[in-house]
């Protein structure tokens, strides 16, 4: 028996934040942002929308497309770095309540942009061990809530959104999640950090004054490690599954920066028409980035039943991971 990627759904908030809008807020330009990141637009949630609201919308679509009753879901794993509440309750519990699903395991995981791939790894183990039958996996972010719109090094990159998938079981290897790799190196924890509000620097007037509740990023250092791990990851997962890049139908990397994707794509020999690119229109939506990209490919008829997807991610922690997944939505 194998774990299987049964469906996909996503939610993109209506409100757009363009490079030209950002020009009015910080010292930047449309030209710089496009050249250095490839991003043109990102979407921003309304003030009254929390991460759980974005997640709920994506989840409804994923459940419908999986063609199962919501009560057949027996676990929800939600990856986010912008939870509704800092410590508790988990955003997964709130989404379960919004969906009207009771008495199931529901929890959040924190692995920044790698959160969706990390969650897939957990869901795969739950299904293959027989512990769970249908796991709803969600990546959802309202990054605008933790972005400092005075910091041009971060605010031009991040956007909001959510993606969700139902992971079920199959006897058919052509519908299987073949492999997931997930890793980390805490030595680099300072490169991407939201320093204030946790047990290290509890919320205080001082942390507020120093704006420690916003994300901080050492962009250039992060960039250099990202291209390395993203490339090495793919080489390793293909090697251990006796595959080559030509066996992959869709390369779906984390949408952080077009230059990172281009570097990795060229290094690994993935043609552009097999690479899913959404960074220009959504920016970097952290844990939501990969499921949003999968959904985009599906809705644009660039992904069909049986296609082999190679997911490749990288984020704060530092964390990274990759996955070889057959798309099993008919
Ligand atoms: N507009 C104009 N100029 C800018 C901007 C901006 N928005 N941001 C930085 N600059 C300037 C800098 O001040 C610097 O100026 P200087 O040369 O006069 O000192 C110059 O541009 C170059 O700065 P770098 O930081 O070296 O720019 P870089 O080319 O590295 O691009 C970026 C910055 C886009 C952040 C890039 O480093 C990047 O994408 N990093 C990786 C991000 C990532 O993958 N994060 C992981 C996932 S996110 C997560 O897990 C939540």
Task: Describe it.
The chain has 330 residues and is α/β, with parallel strands linked by helices. It has two domains: 2-172, Thiolase/Chalcone synthase (Peroxisomal Thiolase, Chain A, domain 1); 177-326, Thiolase/Chalcone synthase (Peroxisomal Thiolase, Chain A, domain 1), CATH 3.40.47. The chain has eleven helices and 13 strands. It has helices spanning 19-23, 30-37, 51-66, 91-99, 115-128, 152-155, 205-209, 219-240, 258-268, 279-282, 289-299; strands at 2-11, 16-18, 41-43, 75-79, 105-109, 135-142, 160-170, 177-184, 192-193, 216-217, 250-253, 308-315, 319-326. Strands 1-7-6-4-5 form a five-stranded mixed sheet, sandwiched between helices. The chain has a four-stranded mixed sheet with strand order 8-13-12-11, sandwiched between helices. Strand 12 (308-315) and strand 13 (319-326) form a beta hairpin. The radius of gyration is 19 Å and the shape is globular. The two termini are 19 Å apart. The model has no long low-confidence stretch (mean pLDDT 97). The protein binds acetyl coenzyme *A. Acetyl coenzyme *A binds next to helix 2, helix 6, helix 8 and strand 12.
Q: Which percent range fits the helix content?
A: 25-40%
Output the CATH class name of the largest domain.
Alpha Beta
Query: What is the CATH H-level superfamily of the largest domain?
Result: Thiolase/Chalcone synthase
Q: State which percent range the strand residues make up.
A: 15-25%
State the CATH topology of the largest domain: Peroxisomal Thiolase, Chain A, domain 1
Number of helices: 11
